[in-house]
Input
Amino acid sequence: MSIRRWFIELLDTPTTPSRRAFLRGSAAVGAAAALPSTASATIPKRRRHWGMVIDLDRCSACNACGVACRQENNIPSYDADPEMHGARPEWMSMLWQEPERANASPELLPMPCMHCADPPCVKVCPVGATYKDPDGITMQVWDRCIGCRYCMVACPYSRRSFNWKEPAWSSSELQMLNPDVATRPLGVVEKCTFCHHRVQRLREEAALAGREPTDAELQRLPACATACPAQAITFGDLDDDDSEVAKLASGTRAFRLLEHLGTEPSVYYLKKDRG
Amino acid sequence: MTRRIYALTRARSRPSALPAGSVGWSVLVALALGLIALGAYAYSVQYREGYIVTNLRNPGRGGAAWGLYIAMDVYFVGVSFAGITVASIARLFQLRVLEPVTRLAELLTIAALVAGAIVVIADLGRPGHGLLELPLLARPSSPFFGTFTLVVAGYLFSSMVAFFLTGRRDAATMIARGPSKLRWFYRAWASGYRFTPTEHARHGRTTFWLAITILPLLVVAHSTLGFIFGIQAGRPGWYSALQAPGFLVLAGASGTGMLILAAVIMRRMLRLKAAIPDSAIHWLGGFLWVLSLVYLYFTVVEELTATYAGPHMDRHVAHEIVTGAYSASFWVAVSCLFLAFLIPFLQYLRRRPSVTGIAIAGALVNVGALVKRLLIVVPSQTHGSFLAIEKGVYSPSWIEWSIMAAAASVVLLILLVFARIFPITHGHEDELTRDTPLPRDPLRKVIAIVWALIALVLVIVGLTDSFRLWSGDELDPRIPFAPVIFAAGVMMLFTTAVIYELLPSRRVRKRSARIVDLARTKIPPPRLALATPLRATERRPLPTPRSKP
Output
């Protein structure tokens, strides 16, 4: 067991759901000891199914979500570099579909990771560097990734990016890096995490106050949803029938991408006339 | 008797006595070393600057994440197929005609697997983490598990065990020939082989059981390679039940082709015409046309299924391959495979097989297989994305070509060096059967069975824990290095053969009796075929026999 611990420390990986929960609990206890607060850590954690709804009738394809995502998650832009064509990491980006294939899916849509309930990428990872969070988020452990890129070819949505070179930022960009999100080294695969760090922080803050996060707090939580000027992106708990996201997802306008593959995405799109 | 022993040792001089004039060998070794150096430099560039120096890119956004490296890996593992299959078939069905090429076949397997491992390392984004984490926590639910554990642990290791055991006899003969700089090597290899009928009979048994264990392992290992692609529902063009059997058959075709090439080149270079007779090559030619034909049939089935009324994207990928962006490569591959079928087949029909014709077919099938491997890996990524932001292109960069050439050179180098220090064909020996009576030796049997049972326990424990069956809701195996336990179990299972053969008998004879024993057993002197020393003896006057002591 000790060897295993040693390797876990070495690889610096979030290990198990139970251990993560324990760490979260202890962090909350530590904070609770500092603040004169009640026994907040004892609140049982509700199991969630985080999901997202993107309203294409509202979306104007301004790509503010993509820019905000870059900013939030420390994704280098490499805009001027022609060498990086096809090698730019993209977590949230606009999918263009050629007009003649308009019957297959809408012409233009913002695509984050679909956080499938049955993700092909998780199945194929040889080392378990990607896994399903108990709350439905498909997580990627950068530091455990060996860079075989199997998940990239397995993802039918092409929502995974490889670090083809050591990420580089200009000095002004360096000062704007988000301390909540780790930067990724050369040779690992990265992907959208539904702004997992924001969800965690909100949960901890709520736990200190002795409650669960409310739906209103969650709706615009991820960076893309915060930035969307048309408020087309809604985030929340799909299992909670009262949440905005569950209501929208069960509406008649809702559909998911590539449903025939059986991946059960957690991202829903809304469009009035899909024809 | 001394005369007899002398006749044996005189027949060939010391194997380390290299003829001065073998320019071809030196040139080839220099070429291989040069290419390996180039590959090492290319890899250093890739390691330093990142994978941006390759032409691989994100799939769905204008590229392919897998390219030449994965195709080459699959190709090399495919080449390794033939070696061990041919050796196993020869032993299972007592095909004496194949015996001259079995050692070369096993050597090719080992060399190709080493090259495959090199290419996998070159492909990994973080090789250091890969080497640390795969043994620590590899997951069998990923088809890569088979490549990383079964292929290396089972396949490579079992080939080496078979190679070691069948080589002991010739290693002992090399010692008997007289002093050599490599005596330590031959002694280690022979590990006390004494030319007794008992050892021979025991070897007959172990080779039979090794062959029968290796064959299913081989099918599983190659199928896992096919499954890497075949079970990806998200990639039109890959998702097909035909992938696994297709991989197996193409592996067989390319491997047989490579074995034919190696055998023909070796026998010309080392003047081994007598040792590797035409009949062996002809048999392999027959095997080659059958496999090529089956693979052509698979190709027709595959393209027809995809294009007739297939789903939109499958049809799109198939059209791109057959008539679109990849049509040139596709038709090159198909023509090569067709010629590899046609040439040996016509010769077979006319009952006039020619070694040259079969060698050409062997070369063509390898070109065809290599291109076909690329056509399996690449088009489904560049043109098979359901939701592509842009269409992709991929052609390997010089870095990738260099690393590939280096890996191929490693195969060449292993073959060349080995041919220099050890006979590439078996010396003559009596037929190996598993029915030859053996003296009672219950202890040996019990030890071997217990050893194999321990190995099986390790396999089961390692595999179930790698599957996280005991981990509850934890993500990692309960026992550290569970995949290593599994792999070690597989390896241990194969070492049972070594234990069974090498365990000393109760009546251990004195070492000095070895050569006398060789003469006493009345086995005809081994017709060792090692060309370089043969040529050396042609030039040198033979040493005069010493007088009787």
